[in-house]
Design a protein that fits this description.
Residues 267-309 are annotated as: Disordered. This protein is 76% helix and 1% strand. By secondary structure, the chain is mostly helical. The chain has one domain (34-266). It is elongated.
Amino acid sequence: MRKLNKWLLGSGLFTLALFLSGCVKTGSDGQPTGEGIIYNFLVKPMSNMITYLVDNFDWNYGWAIIFITIIVRLIIMPLGLNQSKKSMIQTEKMQAIKPQIDAAQAKVKEATTREEQMQAQAEMQQVYKENNMSMMGGIGCLPLLIQMPIFSALFFAARYTQGISDASFLGVNLGQPSIIFVVLAGVAYLIQGYLSTIGIPEEQKKTMKSMLIVSPLMIVFMSISSPAGVTLYWVVGGIFSSIQTLITNQFLKPRIKAQVAEELKQNPPKQVITPRKDVTPTERKTVENGATKKNTSKKGRNAGKQQNR
C-alpha cells in the first residue's frame, strides 16, 4: 500500500510537470505567444523582474537569474521546511508502530483468500487511524503542488526572457548549452540527495538509493540540451536545496526527534495488532519439539552407557 501511494504521488507530480511544460505556448519562432495562465501570471512577471534588474542596476543576466532564483526559493522555503517537518514527525512515529505494521504486512502476505487480504489490510489501516497517522507518509501534496508552478515559471523565465540568449556569464554564453553548468547542476543535486540521507535508518536509506541517482540524472538530462541560462537556474536551485537540507538535518531533525520521543513517552502508541513473535505452524513445531526430545533422550542414554562402562 505504501509503495502504491508513493507511485501514485510520483506519477501525479510527473504528470503535473508535463502539464506545466505545455503551459507556455510558443510560435514558429520559438518565442512565447503570450497565451496561458501560467505565462501571464508567473512567467511574465519574473521575466520582467530579470529585465528590470539588468536595465536599472546594470546587472548581468546571470546575476539577475541567480538573484530572482534565490528570492523565490526564500519565499517558498517555509513551505519546504514545513513539509520536511511533517515528514520527519511521520518517520519518527512510524518507528514506534513498525512492529504492528510488520505484523499486519505479514498477515497480508500469508492471506490465501480475498477476504483474508481485505481483513489484513483493514487491520493495517486501523493501526494508522488509531495512532493518528497518514498512510501517505506525511508528505502532503499541497506544498508540492504550490511549488511546481513557481519553479516552472522560473524555468521558463530563464529560458524565454529577451536578452538572455545573447548574454554571457563568467565567460559562458547563456544562450547555448554549457557542459560546465550541466556538471555543476548534477553535482549540486547529487550532494543534496546525499545530505538528505544523513541520520535516517539504514532500511529507509536503501529505498532512497534509486532516487538519489535518478534525480541528478534527470537534472542532467534536462540541462544538457537547454541553454546555459536555464541550467544556471538548476545550479542555483541545487545549491539552495543542499543548504536547506543541511539546515533541516542539522538543526530541525534533532529537535523533532526529541519532541516526538517526549510525545510517545507521554502517549505510547495504541496497540491494535499484537506483533507476531512466532509464525511457525503448530504441526511443524510439534514435530520439531518431538525430534528435539528424542535427540535429548538418546544423548542421555548414550551418556549413561558411557558412565556404566
